Amino acid sequence: MPLTRTMTEGYKTTFSDGNAIGLFAIKNGAIVDNIDNMRLTYTVAEDGTTRWSLPIDSKIYYYEGVTYIAYPPYKERITIDPLQATNEIVSSLVNNEHLQPAADQSDAANYAASDLMIAASVANATDIEKVTLTLNFKHQFSLLVMTPIIYTTSIYPPEDAGFTYCAVSKAGGVDSLQIRNIRQLSLPLPTGSRRFL
Q1: More reliable by pLDDT, 143 or 62
Q2: Which terminus of the chain faces fewer neighbouring Cβ atoms within 10 Å, N or C?
């Protein structure tokens, strides 16, 4: 599975070839043109140009007053209630059991799959020949970055003791964090820090 986060760019989130988002179109409390968790796939051409590709034989038409809600990473069988207000739909996606962060985020694929982002927008039709839809995705889960260091240190005995300790310090680390009694495996970074969503 391609990643949605480029780890070498720090906190910047980028899409990679093959990433997918789910798209909903809502107007007057109803789904428009069956755009109900439609899968759009990010594609990178040989010349470096990028685009979002629709499923085969699918089209998106412009209608005034349609609200589009999108989220990555795409998951099948995600549903919304179009009768809800936009903020309620966003909240329902955030609380959807299928979109929750994985307990094991120790590899980049699981970590990226846990990074839910959501955008809501309407199309810009000031130029009817070139209607645009701008989706500004916002991260929905907090990012915890930790650099844990654990030291075990030897204690020097009194001078008149009949024994000696090994006078060394040893640094250790952790690979998980326990939150609300749930053990989270974290993603290790080259800097020595670890990330959790």
Answers
A1: 62
A2: N
